[in-house]
Amino acid sequence: MDDEHTDAGPDPAKRLGEAEDADVTVEVDRVAVDGTYVRVSSVGQPGDRAFLLVAGLGIAATYYERLAPHLNENGPVHALDLPGFAGVPRFRGKVSIERYADAVEKVIDDLRLVDPVLVGHSMGTQVVTEVAARRPEISDLVLISPVVDSHARTVRQSAFRFLRSTVHEPAAVRWHGITAYALCGWHWFSKVLPRMIAFPIEERAAEVQAHTLIVRGEHDAMVPRDWVRRLARVFPYAVLREVVDGAHSVMHAQADAVAQLAVAHVAGRLPDRGVSSLQRVRDDSTSSDLARLSPRDAWLLVKSRFVELAGMARNDDETLEAAKSAHAVAMADGDGLPVDPADRREVVDEVAPETRGTD
Fold first, then answer.
1. What is the model's pLDDT at position 226?
2. CA distances from 270 to 126, 267, 280, 346 (A)
């Protein structure tokens, strides 16, 4: 691990980690799997029921930076960087969704997690569904923007739908995507992509015993309404929700809404009106997070992001810990500012069961 720092040169990660009011700590660990490892970024104290977060194709755990702090109020959170993504060394040989599921199971076992809440986004929904299908003791599953629509399983269709969704994503999400895909590299991305498109998530869903929450963004062309309804019918138990104004990366742009849904789902407080019902919720409180930050916290946020990228590129976990902790502090300071109650509200209207279309 390239984590050495000399006294002669500057150490931006150390300065970030020693930032004023730095009371949020992100711990970065490695779990060895199949000739490589999974990088685990953890927030919170052990002992409570944990949330285990798995990101999508090519994406770093950083995509969960807004969701994780809200979930952490209810238990420890572990966000994973899988092999081949975020600077983590790739698998050798053939790759598959099942092999990624093996890696996630190894993390569960090594961390001694008891019935963690599995949360997946995009390709990550395939991975956690496979894990839940293997482990009937898993009682709660949260699928955010599950892929791939069984009526559109080609590279061309998926690419077109994904591009349509990106139009509705905020600039921060696009920046995350560009940097994450650059670290992943086209060779590995193109190797995993066909496996994601071909994976029959609906077949594995039938084997899942967990109570499942499926969340989509209103403008997610990659995950149309009729697809999530068809998918939900396969699970033994599933609840559907749609986040107003959200797109494919809804757990970042509308993190408060998704976190509230996930916590309510785990607590058994989410009304179930059947898989034909697609209730809509709204939460605009995260849309102005950056605007609510002080200039100091905004600058700390930007610095920590670049230091974090450098840590990923160098496989330097010490740098990553300091950068992620500083980033969490900046976000926490911004979240502590007053929020208009009107920004947090649930829309009780439903999308009619007969509604069809890709957005």
1. 94
2. 23, 8, 13, 12
